# Entry
Amino acid sequence: MSRSEGPHRSFLPIGNPFKMMMHKTSHLPSTVLTAFEKNLAERFRQLKPNNASDVITFSWMKSALGSISETLHDVRNLIVDLELPICSWDIKWVDIYLENSLNLLDFCSAYGTDIVRQRFGYVMLKCALLDLESDNPKKFMQASSSLHEWRQYQSCYDNSKLHECCDVIRKLEETLNLPKIKNIPKAKDLVRAMYGLKVQTMFIFSICVAAFSTSLRTLVDLQVPKQYLWQESFTDLQAVMNGEIKNVYASGEIFPLKELRLVDQNVKKLFPLLHDGLGEITQEVFDGYCTELRDSNEKFLSGLDDIKSEMDRFFKVVVDGRMALLDNFQQQQPRSGMQQQVRM
# Structure
């Protein structure tokens, strides 16, 4: 998603109803907002890997997705603490929130579909390993073909749902520069919180996409103003993650995700032996290669299941937020002379 021809825009899931007016005023954040931003800063610090080998792992992705859910929860609490009821919202804010939360659901759907695609890759390797247990030479040729097809399958970006995930992130980027509308008390605190949530979501989504991608185009490079209390920890995290992903590609590897990279390395050890023969490799070493591939493939499947479960939980959090907003909307209509149109 990184585009060298222009700067990256930052994001706001409930939208930006106040046009980020903190850039033009000396508004100071409230106590509740300060607590929110400090919590967000700590989440970014906790996501920073201790070493380069842990830049993208299933464990990191699970924690990162969980951190977005925690921030969503904090935003809902912030709205309550600010005593900013739905009846004080402009109708545009509700439209924007529903539209952007729908984008989050679209991402979950597309990414979930790609997880299913990844599971098919696991099945391909499992079948190849079963063929390698046979004494039939034809089964060995089938295994060789399966390993080759697996690498082709994994590197085919256009046949995945990753491009749809990138489209969702692009839509979220486009929601920042909204028309300026009337300011109201406490609005700046809310918009600052939403801005933080959006930056967090865009960045983590982009890393999740990069995990299965073979291209740097999935990365984002977000520039955050210094007045945010979480700016330093976020910028540090983004630099580390994006930098190490670039290092992975520069080293000749094609998969940033550690567990997938390990599977690929084991495939590359086995494939030439099936194609050209064992040569000086003993049967014992060959069997060891098969065991390594089997173990790494099973760990990969386990990681996929963990991410699928975490994505399902995130989906539920977003849906619950939408339903809560709609319930409040029905009880206390936002200020507007226009007819509300809700995308469900």
